[in-house]
Amino acid sequence: MEAIAPNINPWVLLFASIFTSNILLSNFLGMCSFIAISKDQKSSMGLGMAVTVVLVITVALSWLVRNYILAPFNIEYLGYIVYIGLIAAVVQMLEMLIDRLSPSLYMALGIFLPLITVNCAILGAVLFMVLRSYSLLQSITFALGSGLGWWLAIVLLAAMQKRISKVRLGPGLAGPAITLFLIGFMALAFTGFTAMIPVA
Fold first, then answer.
1. C-alpha to C-alpha distance for 115 and 1, rounded to whole angstroms
2. Among 49, 116, 118, 194, which is 20 to 30 Å from 56 by CA?
3. How large is the average pLDDT for residues 77-95?
4. Other C-beta atoms within 10 Å of 43: how many?
5. Where residue 2 falls among pLDDT bands split at 50, 70, 90?
């Protein structure tokens, strides 16, 4: 993948990472928890917020570690291990915070909260940041946009599933089938923005 020009406008990057290059609907990263949690709107809101917070913090920390520790000491080959360790630490802290502030949300998210650690959207955003040689501001903007895009997608899917749950579907569409159809239609809809801003 080619590195993106370092002088890209952060606002353009934010819009692009939410819509034209949505990390979930364009790259299909983070699908497991997306499909499992999207049946409930409250849980979808909570998980979307948690993923966004983890994305912003981990991408910012990863940029700092890469540029001030790994690169100067020529140990960039340790990047994967360091990035995964940072993700795990941030998720653990967030999990303890949610457990303290909102036990009901903590129980609703269940196993999917600690599984943010292995959510490929988080590591994917970090690796995109590295491959595209983003600055710190661009990295944070990209992470925020990616998180908001993931959050938007899961909330939209939860809303659609709530409406569809009131409709009687044929045996071929009931259950996971209709969910996959909805995700496909959402991906097509978001690709409609691609010609507007082909960035990120």
1. 28
2. 194
3. 92
4. 22
5. very low
* Chain centroid offset of residue 148 CA: 8
DSSP assignments along 45-98, one per residue: HHHHHHHHHHHHHHHHHHHHHIIIIITTTT-GGGHHHHHHHHHHHHHHHHHHHH
Decide: helix, strand or coil at residue 124: helix
Task: Enter the pTM of the model.
Answer: 0.86
* 83 token code pair: 């990035």
Which residue's entry shows tokens 């159809």?
181
What is the Cα–Cα distance from 40 to 31, expressed in whole angstroms?
16
Residue 174 backbone class (left: φ over 0; alpha: ψ -120 to 50; beta: rest): beta
Residue 28 to residues 16, 33, 119, Cα–Cα distance (Å): 16, 12, 11
For CA atoms 158, 24, 31, 105, the dihedral sign is: negative
Q: For residue range 14-40, list pLDDT tens digits in order.
A: 988 998 888 988 888 888 888 887 778
Distance of alpha carbon 129 from alpha carbon 85, whole angstroms: 17
